[in-house]
Design goal:
single chain; 112 residues; mainly beta; 7-stranded mixed sheet; 4-stranded antiparallel sheet; 0% helix; 54% strand
Length: 112
């Protein structure tokens, strides 16, 4: 059983920065971040593929960076120039042995 523990969500003003962390219970190559705003579907934000390429949704390109520390089984999401539209619950996701696993979510609120 894979366990994902997120941290780092907070309240921030527009233009500010946050860094989210997701610690996995084991090393997983395909990990990433999704988000869900009220009334919206969950959407991909950024991720590492199985081949360790990175992918980003267009709306965060140039502002968000996904990185990882394999020694700590941890993936990070550095979020800069935050905007009110970035307000959402952010979920860590991992694909391991053919199954998807999700963290509990961490709330990011950006005020205008």
């Amino acid at each position: 059983q894979v366990r994902l523990v997120e941290s780092g969500g907070d309240f921030v003003q527009a233009g500010g920065s946050l860094r989210l962390s997701c610690a996995a219970s084991t090393f997983i190559s395909a990990m990433g971040w999704y988000r869900q705003a009220p009334g919206n579907e969950r959407e991909l934000v950024a991720r590492f593929t199985d081949r360790q390429n990175t992918e980003y949704v267009d709306s965060v390109k140039g502002r968000f960076t996904v990185s990882r520390d394999n020694a700590k089984n941890t993936v990070y999401l550095q979020m800069n120039s935050l905007q009110p539209d970035d307000t959402a619950v952010y979920f860590c996701q991992a694909r391991y042995m053919g199954s998807d696993y999700w963290g509990q979510g961490t709330l990011v609120t950006v005020s205008s």
